[in-house]
Amino acid sequence: MARIFEHFVLCGLGPEIRTLDGNKGFHGTGVLNMPSLLDQYPPPNYSLYPPPPPRLPTCVLPAGVEFYTSGFDSNDVSTFPRSYPIVLTARVMASLFPHGTGAMGR
């Protein structure tokens, strides 16, 4: 049976907060922060498949991650949590990174 996907990844704000410029720490709202790989399936120690490319979080969230001052308000759609599901196939990866997915790590 063919596999449906090679990896399932969750990207977002990681444990070490850094701005897109590389400055460490929290710098307030309105500042974009580097995305991180938060979790993945299969787990990183699973040897049957190669690991996802190291720059995948930047590919998934190229604009970065931003803090907001207000929390979730069920009456205000702009406060709803956002997710951006994407599917990267081998063909898409080859067209985005013609020299192989190793180029994502540079």
UniProtKB/TrEMBL annotation:
Highest taxon listed in the record's lineage: Eukaryota
UniProt domain uDENN: residue ranges:
1-93
Q: Which InterPro entries match?
A: uDENN_dom
Q: What is this protein called?
A: uDENN domain-containing protein
Which species is the source of this protein? Answer: Nyssa sinensis
